[in-house]
Design brief:
Elements: H1 2-20, E1 24-36, E2 39-43, E3 55-76, E4 82-96, E5 101-106, E6 110-114, E7 118-120, E8 126-131, E9 136-137, E10 153-166, E11 174-193, H2 202-224
Antiparallel strand pairs: 1-11, 2-10, 3-7, 3-8, 3-9, 3-11, 4-5, 4-6, 4-10
């Protein structure tokens, strides 16, 4: 009696697992090479053809393997040398449309002197690699269609911010900036349920039959009592 119950329960679990195993995944990738900022690169992705391909259940955006370098710069427009401290610059990689995902990295701080009428590039370059952004969930309706994503994904490398402190007499004469290069891999994943054919797979039918037989035997045993 106990073994029959176990048999029937296992068969029903198998049927449930068979249904969940039908979920599908479509992955599209676009790699942006490490390129000097600023730049724009378009990544064209296909939309999800619903209901022909099935039902879209979730969209995941990922930005991984981001690497490059960033260098803080200081520009002195006066005629005399100016000292500075804690000069830093932040570089970023952002992909937008329809949803957005981004990652950034900041240089080490630099201090020194910049000659009059020049831009100082003598700070140490910070090199980075292997950065990843937290995954972003996409808005389903924006990815359903028979064409490509519009607007297309654009990868814009840029110096997001720069800051520092100037010495005496630097107000209005010393400006902080930066330069660098950045790149990475963008991945767009569609999770979906395939279209229903209306006819269960033979294996699913067999497991369902086993479950029904097991339950029938259990009921028969109880009736016999």
């Amino acid at each position: 009696m106990k073994s029959l119950k176990i048999f029937a329960l296992m068969a029903m679990v198998c049927v449930l697992l068979a249904g969940s195993a039908n979920a599908g995944i479509i992955t599209q990738t676009c790699t942006i090479p490490v390129t000097a900022v600023g730049f724009t690169q378009t990544c064209t992705m296909n939309q999800f053809n619903q209901p022909t391909a099935g039902t879209l259940t979730s969209v995941v955006l990922a930005l991984t393997g981001v690497g490059g370098n960033v260098l803080p710069e200081q520009t002195n427009i006066s005629g005399s040398p100016i000292t500075f401290t804690n000069s830093v610059a932040t570089i970023g990689l952002t992909l937008t449309g329809p949803d957005s995902i981004s990652v950034s990295d900041t240089s080490g701080a630099c201090s020194g002197t910049v000659a009059g009428g020049t831009t100082n590039t003598g700070c140490t370059t910070t090199t980075f690699s292997g950065l990843s952004a937290a995954n972003v969930s996409g808005t389903l309706a924006l990815y359903i269609g028979t064409g490509t994503i519009s607007p297309a994904f654009s990868a814009s490398g840029q110096i997001l911010s720069a800051s520092g402190s100037g010495g005496v007499g630097s107000a209005g004469l010393l400006f902080f900036g930066g330069t660098g290069a950045i790149g990475g891999t963008f991945t767009l994943t569609y999770n979906y349920n395939p279209p229903q054919t209306g006819t269960p797979e033979p294996a699913t039918m067999a497991m369902l039959g086993s479950a029904l037989i097991g339950l029938g035997l259990i009921g028969r045993k109880r009736f016999a009592r």
